[in-house]
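Figure 2 data, in text form.
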Amino acid sequence: MKSYGTPINVKAQYGDDLRRIAIKDPSDLTWDHLSSRLSSVFGISSTTMRVQYVDEEGDNITISTTEELEEAVALFEDKPSVRFTVSSTISADVASRTEISRGGSVPHGKYCSPSSQTKKDWKLERKQSKDAWRKQKQASKEEWKKQKYEQRQSKREQNKQDKEQFQTDLAKLASMGYQQKGFNGMLLRKFSSSEDRVEKAASILAKNTELQELGHTKTGLNLRLLIKFDGDLEEVLKVLAEKKEKWTRKQALNEALDTLHKKGYPKRGLNRMLLMKHNGDIEAVEKLLMTSAELEKKGFEKTGLNIRLLQKFDGNTELVEEFLSSDDKKAFKYQKKQFKMEKKEMKKQYKQDKKADKELKKSIKQDKKEAKKVLKEQEKFEKKSSK
């Protein structure tokens, strides 16, 4: 190691902090001594410290040994001081924690234990991250509320426009001579997706007027069928004729059932089945029931079997009595099974007819309900407009 006769002045800069260190004894010019002095002055660990100087070519040269330090001092021999730049190999925050955890000095002269300082830093970071998360959440919530409010406002505006347009269309239909507001509103709602809904509704109402002139006075049923068949008047007339015929048959059947009940034949299910089989011929059914009653008095109490056998043997009571008195159980069981199948088929047909009537009534009821709803809305609107 070279010996220097005069003290060596060292200027070291760490960030914005510039310090001057005097090495009075030239024998102390070692890397360990210099790194220890710099570590205590700047409060950073010597293990994470980087010391550099600028050579004559302008390059930053790093030193980490005594030999490299001597070369740097020799380069600045004709200058008043040796200038070094000090930096840390890790971030300032991590360097501070590392230094404190190893028992190093705390900057600014404030003392606290390494564990408590690390905990404080961790808590501070956690609090800052939580605050940032809360702010972000609040901002997103406010944005969501704003979007919802705008959607509601636009929906209200659209509903208001739709209501105004609906009332305008109702007024147009009324000016054409169609004064039933309930049915008018129902048709407008059915054709709400169409641009020319007023023209379509007017066309349906005009055809309904034609149907009423032909004797089909049920407006709700007429409109429903016209909508179903896209205003095809011929198809609607066919369906109405079928329904009318069916309704007439049903009414005649009910009247026949009431007549049989009055004459002393209360079994409505059996009577219905016989009437349907004999196309509503009351006399033929009454004759069968009367003959069956005579057989019951003679001890043959199964009414259904008696009637089936009477039909099989064309009302010949002698043959029926002979068959019922015979021991031919196989034939008897076969006939009984055949009768059950016929009865089941009749019941199935009856249920289908009943279901169709029920659906028809339900659809008529629904149309009436919708018409009433439209009428109520119209009354409310008129009250509001009058106010």
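Caption note: Residues 114-175 form the longest helix (62 residues).
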